[in-house]
Amino acid sequence: MKTVTLQKLLPALLFSGALLAATSCTSNACRNTNPVFDSYSPSTKQYKEELAKQLESIDKSKLTYRLESYQENSDGRYLVVKLQGDGLCARIPLAVTASQNGIERILANKGAGYRDAELKNLRFDIQQNGTNTQFIFAGVDGVID
What we know:
This protein has 4 helices and 7 strands.
């Protein structure tokens, strides 16, 4: 009978643990079928108008929202969020204006450490005028990192 020592078994266990950790932290692949989302950047008028149109025709509660990045510029603070589900796969630039409900720590850390965190029951408003479409953060029930 052959005996396996811990010293010989340890590298295999460490590799298996690292592989499990790496695969458990990746989100589901998002496959886009809308050519507008492939052709334009999320900050463009065309992208935002198409996204607003798509969001009006689906049940937003069926979507999964994951934080992609935090951005700050002269226009203000933004959360770029990946949204997926109900046939939609896109990125939404959410302006953080009045409400910070549920994202205080994300803002305090400027998004660091929250990449790919799920935003449970994300709420936002869509404001459109003749020249611009803007998505305004309204609140979130929880952040699952």
